[in-house]
Amino acid sequence: MADNKTKKEKSPVVLFVAEEKEPLLSKKNRKLLSDPLDDNNPITVQVLGICSALAITVQLKPAVVMAIAVMAVMAFANVIVSLIRNLIPNRIRIIVQLVVVAALVILVDQVLKAFAYDVSKELSVFVGLIITNCIVMGRLEAFALGNGVWKSFLDGIGNAAGYGLILIIVAFFRELLGSGKLYGYEVLGHKGVTLAESTGLYALGYENNGLMLLSPAALLVVGVLIWVQRSRNRKLIEKN
Predict the structure, then answer these.
(1) Number of structural domains, the chain?
(2) Cβ atoms within 10 A of the Cβ of 206, count?
(3) Cα(44)–Cα(39) distance, rounded to whole angstroms?
(4) Distance (Å, rounded) from C-alpha 172 to C-alpha 125?
(5) pTM (2 decimals)?
(6) N or C end of the chain, less CB within 10 A?
(7) Cβ atoms 216, 186 nearer than 8 A
(8) Residue 48: what are its φ and ψ, rounded to 5°?
């Protein structure tokens, strides 16, 4: 009995333990934003979301709007799923995720129709297809279901930014080389009926590349981006 009392007296009693809180933009959290822009890009590394890269990158404007729309959907979908992750039965988690994404996509679509109707018409059904975008569902399943709200928000922003970056780069080259314009403005000069009526590069005999306006051109540009990325970062090259 005496030995037990002395052990109890000697054992330290800790009432409160102050846990160190991780900074909002710690190194790990910053990687959630930076990795999808390069080493873990959804399109060039994970090869996801290729369909929209083919369909809506003929012009820069719809590509920018699509990138913003996907960023809004991914950020809020990740936050919502992270908030309710402990309440979602495992058997219906995919259905719940689809409902969350569908509700957000409908909201984004209505906002576009109200404030950017012309762009909404150009994007057509592709806004609705965000619901089935592999990147959105993949991040919900792989990250938001197992992480907190802030990390999930950063993950959604980062992956959407990486996706949007590729869309904008592809649209930049396709619109510039295919029509001589950027965001609808002539940047290579004005193409007239004759060389005398033309200005800029068109006065020197330059012709637009019609191939860049076709969907296969998007694959060519994405292929070049993948080659450049792997040439610069050799660790991304798959080994047999």
Answers:
(1) 1
(2) 14
(3) 9
(4) 22
(5) 0.83
(6) C
(7) no
(8) -120, 155
Residue 239 forms part of a structural domain: no
Identify the domain containing residue 146 by its residue range. 43-228
Amino acid found at 230: R
pLDDT of residue 14: 44
Asked if the structure places residue 17 within a domain, the reply is no
* CA angle 135–78–161, rounded 5-degree value: 50
Q: What is the 3-state secondary structure (H, E, C) of 68-105?
A: HHHHHHHHHHHHHHHHCCCCCCHHHHHHHHHHHHHHHH
Alpha carbon distance 38, 36 (integer Å): 5
CA separation for the pair 196, 192 (Å, rounded): 8
Instruction: Indicate whether 18 belongs to any domain.
Output: no
Q: From CA 141, how far away is CA 145, in angstroms rounded?
A: 6
Q: Is residue 47 a contact partner of residue 41, using CB atoms and an 8 Å limit? A: no
- Does residue 236 lie within any of the structural domains? no
**In this predicted model, what pLDDT tens digit does every residue of 127-136 receive, in sequence order?**
877 887 888 8
